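Weekly sync, protein design subgroup
Attendees: M.S., D.O., the rotation student, P.L. (late)

Item 1: inverse folding check
M.S. brought a backbone from last month's batch and wanted to see whether the design step gives back something sensible before we order anything. D.O. pointed out we never logged the input encoding, so this time it goes straight into the notes. Structure tokens as presented (171 positions):
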């Protein structure tokens, strides 16, 4: 996956890399369920690898990854806040997914801050937690605080992993 992604973004140089590092994590978090198939975390790790090779700076990779994570989470929150009823009503009452979503909603209502922070690090939760937090009407200030905290830890972690793996990666 990383080789394919690297080939595509390197065709556009540092602008392509930074665009991928910004947009893929943002779209991953902003699109409930669909975002799980997007390589957002892989793009950030790739950004760290390419920073090791000198294609972009480490600071640029960190800033764009953090911005992408925060923007994506904010968009996911807004989607959940605006369309929470239609999203939940489309799932049949007896469907297993409905039970899981209702369980997740109750969990977010009880332990919202922890769910936002930890959700940044778990692939499937990265796509669901922002929307469900908006659907539960979590206070925006609280949500943004924990989104910033989670993103400020997640982005450097992924960039650092990529930087350490840099010698073995594309570039």
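Designed sequence read out in the meeting:
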């Amino acid at each position: 996956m990383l080789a394919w992604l690297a080939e595509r973004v390197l065709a556009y140089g540092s602008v392509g890399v930074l665009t991928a590092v910004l947009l893929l994590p943002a779209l991953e978090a902003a699109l409930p369920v669909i975002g799980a198939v997007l390589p957002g975390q892989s793009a950030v790790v790739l950004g760290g690898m390419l920073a090791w090779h000198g294609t972009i700076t480490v600071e640029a990779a960190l800033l764009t990854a953090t911005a992408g994570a925060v923007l994506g989470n904010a968009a996911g929150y807004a989607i959940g806040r605006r369309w929470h009823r239609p999203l939940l009503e489309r799932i049949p009452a007896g469907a297993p997914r409905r039970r899981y979503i209702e369980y997740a909603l109750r969990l977010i209502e009880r332990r919202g801050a922890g769910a936002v922070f930890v959700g940044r690090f778990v692939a499937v939760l990265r796509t669901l937690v922002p929307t469900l937090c908006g659907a539960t009407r979590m206070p925006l200030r609280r949500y943004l605080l924990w989104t910033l905290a989670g993103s400020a830890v997640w982005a450097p972690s992924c960039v650092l992993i990529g930087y350490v793996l840099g010698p073995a990666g594309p570039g």
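Discussion: The two ends are 15 Å apart (CA to CA). The longest helix spans residues 58-89.
Action: P.L. to compare against the previous round before Friday.
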